[in-house]
């Protein structure tokens, strides 16, 4: 039987972690000291220097190597957007075992923490958005929400709230737990060796170019595209669905993060598998999920009804809503 999108007329009871916790109160008094993780600072600095050098090598890279770089970029990005985000964090659709394995491999190539940790932190982000318990609290500025949160120790509230989340669905997923168990062994091979080895072995690209372009540059690009959802999409753009929250609709982020920049919509309706009301428009991730449903590898997509979207936009939006 073909999959049919199920319109939701109200908040989905299965996604309780999506609901913002209005009972949470930030502690009064002095904030805990910021502890810099110098290892991360050094590694991120070297990574970005390597990526800049990788850009300089693009003119000497073969066309096949550049195509391979794009393929790896999209594959690893889907491991985050369609996998860790829409599937495992929000449970907005269901995926078969082969698709879950495919997405887990893509997520490993993306190297943004294992699926379990990524989904846990993202659920905390939604439940305590823009507070001390938010891992990448945008109130602390662009740099912090973009990359700075990875360069310092987590705020104690992030750790405390993360431990209290219900994560049994993640623990019950054998693909998630297998990846978590062997993550440190898999990452060097999947994220760096495979992207480098294929162009060197298959069409004779130099190892130097193969390492710095499809491995280092590709990895850094996907990282920053993902981070823009936490930073730029929480600061710049309109808020057609809910003007009371920070997340915005940001077209640049939507393009660079293959569909994740419809962020005011996503924080208003986090259980929608499409993260947007506009279908495939600038949304490669939604195209991918729909194609997987067509192939029978995914099912039970959750989608917000147009009536609910319009009613919410009229009630809480900033007046900029344009459907269609």
Summary?
This protein has helices at 38-57, 63-89, 97-110, 115-127, 142-146, 156-163, 168-171, 174-181, 183-203, 207-230, 251-256, 263-268, 284-294, 306-316, and strands at 6-8, 94-95, 298-299, 302-304. By secondary structure, the chain is mainly alpha-helical.
Tell me about this structure.
- The protein is 55% helix and 3% strand.
- The protein has 324 residues and is mainly alpha-helical.
- The chain has one domain (34-316).
- It is globular.
- Residues 7-16 have low confidence and may be disordered.
Global geometry: globular
Number of helices: 14
Task: Please describe the biggest sheet, giving its number of strands, its sense, and whether it closes into a barrel.
Answer: 2 strands, parallel
Radius of gyration: 20 Å
Overview features:
two-stranded parallel sheet, globular, 4 strands, 14 helices, 324 residues, 3% strand, single chain
Give the SSE map.
Blueprint: E1 6-8, H1 38-57, H2 63-89, E2 94-95, H3 97-110, H4 115-127, H5 142-146, H6 156-163, H7 168-171, H8 174-181, H9 183-203, H10 207-230, H11 251-256, H12 263-268, H13 284-294, E3 298-299, E4 302-304, H14 306-316
Parallel strand pairs: 1-4
Antiparallel strand pairs: 2-3
């Amino acid at each position: 039987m073909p999959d049919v999108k199920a319109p939701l007329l109200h908040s989905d009871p299965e996604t309780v972690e999506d609901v913002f916790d209005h009972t949470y109160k930030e502690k009064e008094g002095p904030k805990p000291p910021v502890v810099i993780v110098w290892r991360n600072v050094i590694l991120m600095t070297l990574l970005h220097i390597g990526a800049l050098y990788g850009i300089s090598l693009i003119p000497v890279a073969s066309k096949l190597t550049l195509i391979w770089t794009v393929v790896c970029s999209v594959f690893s990005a889907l491991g985050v957007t369609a996998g860790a985000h829409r599937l495992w964090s929000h449970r907005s659709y269901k995926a078969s075992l082969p698709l879950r394995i495919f997405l887990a491999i893509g997520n490993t190539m993306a190297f943004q923490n294992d699926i379990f940790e990524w989904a846990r932190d993202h659920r905390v982000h939604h439940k305590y958005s823009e507070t001390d318990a938010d891992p990448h609290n945008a109130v602390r500025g662009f740099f912090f929400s973009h990359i700075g949160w990875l360069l310092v120790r987590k705020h104690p509230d992030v750790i405390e709230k993360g431990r209290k989340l219900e994560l049994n669905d993640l623990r019950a997923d054998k693909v998630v737990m297998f990846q978590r168990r062997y993550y440190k062994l898999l990452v060097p091979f999947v994220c760096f060796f495979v992207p480098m080895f294929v162009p060197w072995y298959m069409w004779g690209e130099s190892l130097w170019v193969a390492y710095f372009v499809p491995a280092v540059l590709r990895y850094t690009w996907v990282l920053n595209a993902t981070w823009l959802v936490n930073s730029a999409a929480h600061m710049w753009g309109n808020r057609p669905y809910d003007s009371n929250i920070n997340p915005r609709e940001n077209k640049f982020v939507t393009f660079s993060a293959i569909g994740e920049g419809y962020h005011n919509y996503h924080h208003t309706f986090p259980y929608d598998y499409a993260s947007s009301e506009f279908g495939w428009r600038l949304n490669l991730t939604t195209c991918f999920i729909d194609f997987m449903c067509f192939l029978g590898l995914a099912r039970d997509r959750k989608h917000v009804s147009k009536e609910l979207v319009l009613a919410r936009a009229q009630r809480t939006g900033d007046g900029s809503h344009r459907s269609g």
